């Protein structure tokens, strides 16, 4: 792999993560799943969205390669696709809060 190819690959990977984090519901799903795997219905209830909306967001996150579905009988639960994602999200959140501690005060982000 050349340096140019690596840069394009890295750029695409970061763009996928940025897309995933650009929506508050998807960001909430990722933050919830860093704590523990969950069923879509539980995520929908916790994030106060419909099950259909949650299904759409989970499909997006699967497409970005950030979460994976784990069938369990007639139900499916979700988890982060890689163990490195939870600490990465923690670090990213720490950086954001360090740079702008009052950025997201519950009234929406003014960034």
Tags for this model:
single chain, 111 residues, mainly alpha, Arc Repressor Mutant, subunit A, two-stranded antiparallel ribbon, 5 helices
State the gist of this model:
This is HTH-type transcriptional regulator CmtR. The relative contact order is 0.12.
Q: Helices and strands in order, then pairings?
A:
Layout: H1 3-21, H2 24-35, H3 40-47, H4 51-63, E1 67-72, E2 75-80, H5 85-99
Antiparallel strand pairs: 1-2
Helix pairs in contact: 2-5, 3-4
Fourth CATH level, the homologous superfamily: Winged helix-like DNA-binding domain superfamily/Winged helix DNA-binding domain
* Residue runs with pLDDT of under 50 for 5 or more positions: none
Distance between the termini: 36 Å
Tell me what portion of residues adopts beta-strand conformation.
5-15%
Global outline:
globular
* CATH fold field value: Arc Repressor Mutant, subunit A
Average of per-residue pLDDT values: 88
Count up the helices: 5
Helix content: 55-70%
CATH class: Mainly Alpha
How many structural domains are formed by the residues?
1
Strand tally: 2
Q: Note the main sheet.
A: 2 strands, antiparallel
